[in-house]
Amino acid sequence: MKRLFFTFAFILLLCSTAQARTITDDSGRTVAFEKPFTRIISLYGAHTENLFALGLDEQIIGVSTGEDYPAAALAKPAFNARDGVEKFLAAKPDLILVRPMHMRTYAGLWNALARHGVTVVSLQPDSVEAMFDYWRALGALTGRQTKAEYMIEDFRDGVRRAEDRLSTIPVEERPGVFFESIHRKSATFSPGSMPLFVLEKAGGINVAADARPRHGTNIADYGLERLLDKGNKIDVYLAQHGTMNDVSVGDIVNSPAASRIRAVLTRNVFLVDEHLVSRPTLRLLEGIDTVYQLLHP
Q1: What keywords sit in the KW lines (predicted)?
Q2: CATH label, 2-152, candidates 3.40.190.10, 3.40.630.30, 1.20.58.410, 3.40.50.1980
Q3: Are 110 and 98 in contact (CB under 8 A)?
Q4: Bridge partners, 167 (sequence order)
Q5: What pLDDT, in 10s, does the model give residues 98-111?
Q6: Which residues contact 123 (CB under 8 A, 6 or more apart)?
Q7: For the segment 178-206, what is each residue's pLDDT rounded down to a tens digit?
Q8: Domain 173-295 CATH (choose: 3.40.50.1820, 3.40.50.1980, 3.40.50.150, 3.30.420.40)
Q9: Which residue in 21, 46, 52, 57 sits closest to 36, CA to CA?
């Protein structure tokens, strides 16, 4: 019933909206367009994953190097921001999706492409609420607004199921968790970030709730001294694992003074795929389930 409502609402919206549409991207730029984009190059794995979730396989004509999810991404031509203007133009894209970091670093490339009529949009949400707006922006750019609303509905339903599962576990029985973002810096995640959302919905208590974020990132410096001061409260030590944090359980348990951390002594040190906890995709629900199983075996 809810899906019929969304479909009807968006038919009315599209019928009543002027031909030109606009969005404001995460670099603060207003992007105007008259029709959905149909030849898209995605230079961020989350963009790619969400475009596939929106049913845009045929409209994706390129992805960033090293992408492997979903499997269909492997069949797409690979691009990166160090490629020349000519390679991008040869593919005849009408839209290139990037992150704000790439927008700043490779401004000359994007400006050159814009002069050739290619639209470049910078998007990267930093919280779950911002993720919903991000999905809506992708839906608007591609003419898949209704599908984007379905994604939001599915995500919220998944979160409600996770919350129902937690209702049987009293707060005082939930484990204290340190969630590592970057091992070499003893860093954790910023308040309100997606990994800490995953941790909360999986039934963990963040022992580093006093962490302060770095400006403009989801990373929060914590430091070894503060970490060890909380050692006896850390029942479970989680670390995101991937490009951002190429760490092993051995690296953690053999760190200086790691024996002062309860989770090390009880062998409750675990790695979690960063794609399941840090990327703004529907797979955050899989991340919640994965972390729940680690915290409540």
Answers
A1: Signal
A2: 3.40.50.1980
A3: yes
A4: none
A5: 999 999 999 999 99
A6: 25, 26, 47, 97, 98, 99, 134, 137, 138
A7: 999 999 999 999 999 999 999 999 999 99
A8: 3.40.50.1980
A9: 21
